[in-house]
Fold:
Amino acid sequence: MRIAMIGTGYVGLVSGVCFSDFGHQVVCIDRDGEKIARLDRGEVPIYEPGLEALMRKNIAAGRLTFSTDLAAGMKDAEAVFISVGTPARRGDGHADLSYVYAAAEAIAAQIDDYLVVITKSTVPVGTNREVARRIRAARPEADFDVVSNPEFLREGAAIEDFMRPDRIVVGLESDRARAVIAEVYRPLFLRETPIIQTGLESAEMIKYAANAFLATKITFINEIADLCEKVGADVQSVARGIGLDRRIGPKFLHAGPGYGGSCFPKDTLALVETARAHDSPVRIVSTVVEANEARKRAMAGKIIAAAGGSVAGKRIAVLGVTFKPNTDDMREAPSLVIVPALREAGAEIVLCDPQGRKEGEALLGEASWAGGPYEAAESADILVLITEWNEFRALDFGRIRAAMKGDLIVDLRNVYLPAEVRAAGFSYVSIGRS
Ligand code: UDX
Structure:
């Protein structure tokens, strides 16, 4: 099968590489010439475990190429994916669809034989029908179908998620499109991956409802965690205790500093906007958006309170700045709110992150960067863990204690054992564990 992938951002690149690994002939198209040149040389512009090796393997096998030329890239393609960005528009939170529609119109100009146009970008309900309308308006005689195929890739585990998904969701309305999709995903059908076939609107809604539900689950446990602190309960026991109820499930019940990343913040906002536009409010999701924003700010207050009410003149070592481990992505990371607030409160900041420095240097302002946790701890009054990279999980607390000037550890991800940290001579504050 010949596939064209428009957009080499996170989703487009991972999907393009994985489809080529299925044995398809894939051309990844992007108008950013510099990026395409790097990809051509086998360089991956983002940090995603396993992606570079898989990409190089498929380039070497002749199945994966890159191009800035949409017309040439689409030549003979049987399926073309739209996986361009849909950022939240500044001001109103609506998903910005201008890139999606521009891609649809560019595709329309190139349709030759029957073509299936598949939207992978996360787009609000109604967008796929509008994509079809625009292609039809541009090329009334063209033979094509539009399919909605949302992705559920987690950064840091994207290849595993692509190769072994819980399910594939496709919104489509013709047997011809169904046959093409079956061919595109054939290796996963052979592994008996469940496939949910729906109409266009339901497929679009599944994506938003899934992300909003997960964001709600996280926000729920975060608020329960705060209450646990007040009443003397332990949120980790509570999460285990409720998670074993199969109706609830154990995942996404880790209390922390609030969710971030490229999806949950943007998609929850977009869903709230869609609901408002249809006069059908999703009050729970609106509250989740607000609570999560407030939480990031509250985390700085928690650190200041743990320090006795002031961090002025204190040296704070921050472990982890990316929105989660195994990525270099800083989008909507809690650190972007917490670090500036601590600096404004008069603290001197030392940052440490296995992959976050490249992006983080520009975003996090005045701070020094340490090469590892022990270097960061040197002369620090307070050590704060924001992102739970494996590198930070098994610290030698004796060594950290010897390096630090102060004795306070604030763990915003509950990765340490309170008894162990306290035995090493620290004062220890975590989330939802009084
Ligand atoms: C998410 C979805 O999981 C994926 O299916 C979707 O399509 C894209 O968005 P991603 O943003 O890569 O993926 O990361 P995820 O692992 O879901 O974490 C999102 C955020 O929630 C992170 O900030 C993470 O730290 C936080 N989180 C997650 C928690 O605070 N607690 C949890 O229990 C789980």
Summary: The pocket of uridine-5'-diphosphate-xylopyranose is lined by residues 151-155, 211, 214, 218, 252-254, 256, 259-261, 263-264, 323-324 (CB under 6 Å). The first strand starts at residue 2 and ends at 6. Residues 200-231 form the longest helix (32 residues).
